[in-house]
Amino acid sequence: xxxxxLLPMNECALNSASSFLVALTLSLSLVLSIFRDLRAQVxxxxxxxxxxxxxxxxxxxxxxxxxxxxxxxxLSRRQAVLSTAAGAxxxxxxxxxxxxxxxxxxxxxxxxxYQFIYPVGWQEISVDGQAKVFKDIIEPLxxxxxxxxxxxxxxxxxxxxxxxxxxxxxKQALSAPGALGKLLSAKERTDKDGHLYYSFEFVSKTKSxxxxxxxxxxxxxxxxxxxTTGSSERRWDKMKDRLNAANDSFLVYY
Length: 254
Hints:
By secondary structure, the protein is an alpha+beta fold. The protein has helices spanning 9-14, 26-55, 61-90, 97-100, 162-172, 236-248; strands at 104-109, 114-119, 123-124, 132-135, 143-150, 180-190, 196-205, 210-220, 223-232, 251-252.
């Protein structure tokens, strides 16, 4: 396996010309707009109902029919709004909306069959041997990277347990040369399509820095996917919620 690259501070400057992705996807903006309109419709409906109750205690059959028609129309409009909103949210499936709305971009590669989120403000850079890399332009140890390797294994179970695979990767692949890697925890999860994932947390320490990281791995269609994100130990408490959200969002399709 290739070792995870940790780019030095000056390479952030060399890559500063790379463009940022949009802060929020259009679908998320659409969700906000739709639910604002929906709330206004509901409030307006409540006001009309209260006013009618004060003026009249009963209504004629014609008025009841009209009211029924109006309610049906209003219900249809609300159902259409909710349906549109649901479609927009589906674009970020398995992504916690509270995280997405508070500052994440979505990577969705349908050809390769994977998706994940990463914090707004991180810049995409090109690194040999890695499928995707995004990193903070100020903090050199804050990044997320995806590696894809060919494999003849059909499942992670063919390699070992989550603990066994994590220990091997932390010691042999995910720590920088000369770094001391220490595994903190390991777990597994299965998505709705039956794909098995191993996720683990570890610390990689050298004389000059200490990095706290999270990794998720999976195997599908003859490919071994490795997604890793992390920050300096100094900034871990500030970044851990966002990094956990990014790590847990990783999905494969095929």
